[in-house]
Amino acid sequence: MRLSSTPFGVLFGTLIFLGRATAAAAPEAPVPTLAVTIRLMGANPRMGDPIPMEVTVKNLGAAPFEYTSYPGRFGPLQLQAREVTGRAVTDPNAIDQRGIAETVSLRPVTVPPGGSSTVVVDLNEWALIRAPGNYTVTSTFRGYFVSTHATILADSSAITVAVQPRSEKEMAAHVADLTAKLRAAGDLQVRYELASQLMFTGREEIVPALLESMRVYGGGFAESRAFLFYLPHSAAIRQAIMDDSARHGLTNSTEGLLRHYALPSPKGISVNDSDNNITAAEMRPLIARSLALDNPDCWAAGCNAALRYPDDSLTPLLIAMTETTKVPAVYMVSTPDGPMNYIAQTAIQDLAFNRTDESVQALKKLLQSPDPKIAEVTANGIRTSYLSGNSYNQGHRLLPGDFDPSLQKPEPKKN
Q1: 412 CB contacts (<8 Å, ≥6 apart)?
Q2: How far apart are CA 170 and CA 193, in angstroms?
Q3: 137 has a pLDDT exceeding 80
Q4: Would you report the helix, strand and coil content of the chain in percent, each value rounded to 5?
Q5: Is residue 158 classed exposed, middle or buried when 0-12, 13-18 and 19+ CB atoms within 10 A define those classes?
Q6: Is 54 exposed, middle or buried (0-12, 13-18, 19+ CB in 10 A)?
Q7: Beta pairing, strands 33-40 & 15-22
Q8: Residue 121 in contact with residue 38, Cβ under 8 Å?
Q9: Above 90 in pLDDT, residue 273?
Q10: In the prediction, which pLDDT does 70 show?
Q11: pTM of the predicted protein model
Q12: 3-class SS at 155?
């Protein structure tokens, strides 16, 4: 998504619509009037291509127009597409998605009188284009006029976007080209854009490339969106995610994906953050592979998953995580008292939140650690486990006789 303020120019083939402020603006405040144009950028797209739409907002009023801009589909622009039959094209994000989040950057935009602001957003963000043909596209601009606290709602007339076909051979070549570029890309933003382009194809053959990107190159958000919103929810794809994790271990992205990835039900598809989407028994071997001593890249995800899916059989692996000295530098977190081993810290918390005889003995040993940071983390983990009950997970709680009563109540305030 690109956002820029530019001088207003009449664009050939664009459509103009006007929007006036509604809502409770101060009577004496100037009411902004907007002229908005919408057009398809570039030539007619082919199946699987991004479909960039440009919307230019011109301020026709006498006072500056201010609104808050967000990237992508989080911005003030909404797009809708309809087939020639009039049927609305499915919005990929229309399914229940509580628990899905992205950190977005907000920034105020001020458009002076006579000036304009341009937003470019892919139609694919708003419509699952699954077949070639002509699509009727409309837009709604919802802006917020900061100085008058007025909401501006402007609806466009329709334009036609002709999506050209790709043969199966051409689509396979297109997917292969994007996959190769994704593997070769080093820049995170470029990788995000390439993963999004693969996502727009909606093809099941992109699954291995997406999983590899999440596992090897640190991808996450675009790949997860592809699985949750653009690809079909099927037992085969779910199994592919699990098989990849069983072979290589979890990443934080794949662990979260499995929690959200739900199979279709009579009520539709929900991608709520729910432990019901994968059981502890299914997660156990994936966590065990992640905590293997020969798999350090997955230790953090394994420790995080072990807290959510506690299992007694994982205790020896978690104890090993507190003892290993071969911790990748990325897991050494800077603190005012020096570097802290994130893997050990998380594993200690896991041990405190799922009691076994082994975990109690390990925690007692860690309380006596010569590293004061480890001893402090252990005491805090024990204390939190006693005080939180089952709010963190469904693991076995520590027993009153396991540790000194001073560790079973809030830490005394330091002077």
Answers
A1: none
A2: 21
A3: yes
A4: 40, 20, 40
A5: middle
A6: middle
A7: antiparallel
A8: no
A9: no
A10: 64
A11: 0.80
A12: strand
Distance between CA atoms of 94 and 154, rounded to whole angstroms?
A: 22
Span 72-103, pLDDT tens digits: 665 677 889 999 999 999 998 776 554 455 55
Checking if the pLDDT of 308 tops 50, the result is: yes
- Euclidean distance between CA atoms 287 and 301, whole angstroms: 8
Q: What angle do CA 327, 329, 335 make, to 5 degrees?
A: 100
**Between 339 and 284, where is the model more confident?**
284
Kindly tell me if the per-residue pLDDT of 281 is higher than 60.
yes
pLDDT value for 16 = 34
Give the residue from 29, 50, 25 showing the smallest Cα distance to 40: 50
Q: What is the DSSP letter of 232?
A: -
**Predicted pLDDT of residue 11:** 27
Q: Residue ranges per domain, the chain?
A: 2-163
Task: Give which of 344, 285, 331, 342 is closest to 309, Cα–Cα.
Answer: 285
* CA-to-CA dists, residue 217 to 94, 130, 221, 239, angstroms: 29, 29, 12, 21
Tokens linked to 303:
């420790």
Torsion angles phi and psi, residue 138, rounded to 5: -125, 165
Beta-strand pair 77-82/107-111: unpaired
Could you tell me the two tokens for 64? Answer: 């500056």
By three-state DSSP, how is residue 341 classified? Answer: strand
Calpha distance 56→385 (Å, rounded): 55
What are the tokens at 124?
């694919």
List 17's β-bridge partners, or say none: 36
User: For the chain, what is the total number of helices (H) and then of strands (E)?
Assistant: 12, 13
Q: Stretch 227-248: mean pLDDT, rounded?
A: 94
Residue type for 12, please?
F
**For the residues 282-303, what does the mean pLDDT come to?**
95
Q: Name the 3-class secondary structure at 54.
A: strand
With respect to CATH, is domain 2-163 assigned 3.40.50.720?
Answer: no
Q: Give SS3 for 110.
A: strand
Alpha-helical runs (H) found in 44-187: 168-184
Spatial separation of the C-alpha atoms in residues 348 and 358, rounded to whole Å: 12
Look at residues 132, 121, 141, 126 and name the one whose alpha carbon lies nearest to residue 161: 132
Averaged pLDDT for residues 7-34: 42
Q: Would you state the structure tokens that stand for residue 283, as one six-digit string?
A: 């997660």
Q: How confident is the model at residue 369 (pLDDT cuts 50, 70, 90)?
A: very high
318 to 34, 53, 128, 311: CA distances (angstroms): 60, 50, 43, 11
Tokens of 39: 């057009």
